[in-house]
Amino acid sequence: MTAGKPHLSRQHVLGVLRTMVMIRRFEETCAELYSGGKIRGFLHLYVGEEANAAGLGQSIGPDDALVATYREHGHALARGVPTRKIMAEMFGKMEGCSRGRGGSMHLFDAEHRLYGGNAIVAGGLPLAVGMALADKMQGRKRVTVCCFGEGAAAEGEFHESLNLAALWKLPVLFLCENNLYAMGTALVRSESEPDIHRHAECYNIPAEVVDGMDVVAVEVALRTAAEQVRETGEPFFVESHTYRFRAHSMFDPELYRDKAEVEEWKKKDPIDRFAGWLKSAGLVHDADVDAIEKSVADEIADAIDFAEAGQWEPVEDLTSDVYTPPEAGRA
Amino acid sequence: MATITYRDAIRAAMREALTNDPRVFLMGEDVGKYGGSYACSKGFIEEFGPDRIRDTPLSESGFTGAGIGAALGGMRPIVEIMTVNFSLLALDQIVNNAATIRHMSGGQFSIPLVIRMATGAGRQLAAQHSHSLEVWYAHIPGIRVVAPATIADARGMLAAALADPDPVVMFEHATLYGAEGDLPDKPPPVDIDRAAVLREGTDVTLITYSGSVPKALEAAKTLAESGIEAEVIDLRTLRPLDDETIMASVSKTHRAMIVDEGWRTCSLAAEISARITEQVFYDLDAPVGRVCSAEVPIPYPRHLEMAATPQPETIVAAVRKLVGVDE
Amino acid sequence: MPSLGADMDAGTLVEWLIKPGDDVHHGDIVAVVETDKGAIEVEIFDDGTVKSLEVPVGAKVPVGTVLARIDGKGEEKAPEAKPARAAPPPEPQPPAPVPPVAKPKPAAKAPAHVGEGVRASPVARKRAQELGIDLSGVEGTGPEGAVTLKDVEQGGPAAAKAPPKTAVARGIKPADMRKAIAAAMARSNREIPHYYVSLDIELTALSDWLAAENGARPVQDRLLLIAPMLKAVALALKEVPELNGQWQGERFVPMSDVHMGVAIALRGGGLIAPAIHGADQMRVGSLMAGLRDLTNRTRKGGLKSSELSDPTFTVTSLGEDSADSVSPIIFPPQAAILGLGAIRRRPWVHDDGLVVRPIVTATLGADHRVSDGRTGGRFLRFLADLLQEPSKL
Amino acid sequence: MTPDDLMATVKHALYDVAPELEDEDLAADRPLRDQTELDSMDFLNLAIAIHDATGIDIPEADYPKLQSLDDIVGYLGTKLH
Predict the structure, then answer these.
(1) pTM (2 decimals)?
(2) Which stretches within C62-147 are classed as H helix?
(3) What chain B residue is nearest to C122 in terms of C-alpha separation?
(4) Cβ D40–C320 below 8 Å, yes or no?
(5) Could you tell me the residue range of the domain that residue D14 belongs to?
(6) Which domains does chain C have, with CATH numbers?
(7) How far apart are the C-alpha atoms of C36 and C21, rounded to whole Å?
(8) How far apart are CA B287 and CA B291, in angstroms?
(9) What are A213-262's pLDDT values in tens digits?
(10) Which residues of D touch C321 (CB under 8 A)?
(11) Staple A178 to which of A109, A150, B9, C27, CB 3.0 to 4.6 Å?
(12) Contacts of A251 in chain B (CB under 8 A)
């Protein structure tokens, strides 16, 4: 890796660890709430991939933008969207970050420049390219990050977007979170070229691979890539090898992968690895970890109470914001 | 006579087609190892092998186009696009190739292809996964569009569609897969040309299809309690529309109410309403009514999704107003 | 039973991985459930000891059913329920979806009377024309005061108050009828090429039969001469179907049933011809009762519109002290009409000698587009023969 | 029943058959046919109404003798005593 080591201060590493623990506990709570019927529709969990979002969260600034997929709870949390607003959205309440209308797959937050979950595979890539085009044309030096799974590589939009970004030299950071399974189909059964980043090289886009289970490695790679995109204004492609410990969604008997493989990857649990390394380096102690678990549990409990107390959007507002209201004026 | 689910009926139909005709093969996302996102092809890959039960990458335009090519090449493909929401990526192949090649080639080629896709809202899957866009396909000359609502149609329509030399798009409403019904052990063949009168009536004709059929029947039951006898027509085929059955009924009841989960503007309901005023205008006692989805992206929360899409209560209220019982 | 997917309503318990007394911890897999998609492992979210298993292996139960009870830190709770909440987790109760509130509708404007522009539904307009009813006289009860089919047929409000099926038929007001008949007569005269044939019929046998018949009947069941004559006409029409039916669009449709239109004089002038339905199948007694009822209701304004629109043939009679014969005008959409003159004692040739007998002149008016003089003549001969054997009617 | 009672009964029966005659001042001694448009059906209904009111059955053969209201009242008078 070319760029320098991340500045591993105690305060920094505690922050990264808390983010990962928050994501893990948030997702586990969602699984429970889904079984209890509080969360409906589809739910795609990020357990096991926390390092990517946590690393990304440290690598981009408030001015940068993030376009994600339907598996975007971790990204939203890492990006700073309040836990309360995300949980309320999962419940479908008005206080949710999308006013309850999007649900798990469609978290949006203008303030944190989170341009949504997108439920159509690869649907976000062209958007990211377009936002980067706008930045370039308006002379703004900032980064648009586009997260997607390796399944997107089979969609035409993936290839069209990479080509446009390369052709027009646009400031887009493509982050492919390759968790080896696109829904029910293993990567090797759907991609003639399983090394996704090699697609980027065909479009002359510099690419790197990173161990998605090592948050330090992820942060280094993404911090470097983001700086390069910001400076050169040209696209960069990072492929992160990672793994999801739970099924694709709540309704998936996981027939397509065997238990042994899951156990194997669980040994590389990004949270246990990072916490273990920090303790051995003396940067962090058990008391710190317990404190983090406690404060995360409190924050999630509060978020649930907030969501429970939330309001249903009145039916009368059903058609509001289909179009921009006239008084809001034209941007 | 056996009681089976709509899903089982679809599976039995595909199994029969795959067994009877070696040219038939199934292609789509997760149709193989996963057994189908709605479990309609469970056990197929073990029985027919991966060559004829093909899991595809997430490349809707690619594999739909490939299905069209295979049909041109003499196969009888069944392409499963998981839902109409994803079919938008394959629209170009369907409109500019499947629907057009025969005519554009001066009649040299026919494309015996069946495309199956789930459709409709009702599962709180929010806007991008809850579309009902059947009318986009019913607009295109060169393809046929069918919508099995009953267990008998779920079992029978595929065979008729596969026998058709031209492309047939088959819509299966997502909320119907779990529905149960009786089916004779040797189910009789089914046509894909006629609408069906599911309930006789004299005061109003309820014209509907697919996922709205159970809602219309329930509304008819409620209306009967207040003396309004509704005749319920299941369109079954969306292109071509069975004008004869529709007009015969409307000229009898003098009132028509169309229930269509699509958005109101430029909907199937709009087309049917236009045909009614063109063909049986002088038998109408009231303007043609329409119950459609509110013109919004379907929201996630249950109570908003319910408010946005046609429900038995809204159908009953609309009919009572049409008949002049309520203001 | 946890909700394991968007379209899952129930699941079948396939395997228990715990038994009463086992300790369980957050995240343990405690059971396997079979869904439409395959077997899915069920996770527990609480720590505690298994108290009881509530659902046997193989049972299919709806989402939310309590599967087992766990003794955790002293309280009893179902595996997937939060300690405070009782299982099954209540379906989140969104407010009942209120149908979008109808915007306050502007008060139904009275239909703008732009000249002849009465707001009426197409079928109402069509039926009014068939019945010869002037729409501007009919009170509209449809949307925004539009005249509906019911309004025209029953001259009353549409299903408004009572549900349509059992709507009470309120008769058509006599005044409206007179205007309607005048319009129909004018149209008939303009459009229908009438031809006329007539025959004098000797009624001795009929009047003897009537006197005997009435002698044995109480006054309420007493017959008028017109009753057996109507029956004879009906039977004669069965022999000559071209005279019995209605025009539909461009085609005359002969009909098997005979709905006998009987011209009834309105008080204060004008006459209309409502129908006695199925006159050919009725006995003379019930035909008489039908005629009496029809006459009373016509004069009191209690007619049903179908009685006005259904006749397939009409008979009009001048009554006792009137002219010898009448050449009537057909009631559209029918294609023939019989006019009976006054019954009077006239000279009659019998066995080469002159006698005096009660005679009626029967004149048939018919639509030349449908039948011709020969057919008309044949009909009158049938009628005359039937009237010579009244006991057979 | 006195002749006046009988006349009231007959008039009541007549108005039941033909309500519009109520506001006509009918002459009791002139034939009804000349003063009204009553036809054979009306006379039958009148006969029935009188029978209902008085129990007296008027056979068809006697119709010709009953031209005016006075004729009817007289006829009924003889029948009652």
Answers:
(1) 0.64
(2) 122-131
(3) B282
(4) yes
(5) 3-80
(6) 10-77 (2.40.50.100), 122-164 (4.10.320), 177-392 (3.30.559.10)
(7) 31
(8) 13
(9) 999 999 999 999 999 999 999 999 999 999 999 887 776 777 677 888 88
(10) 33
(11) A150
(12) none
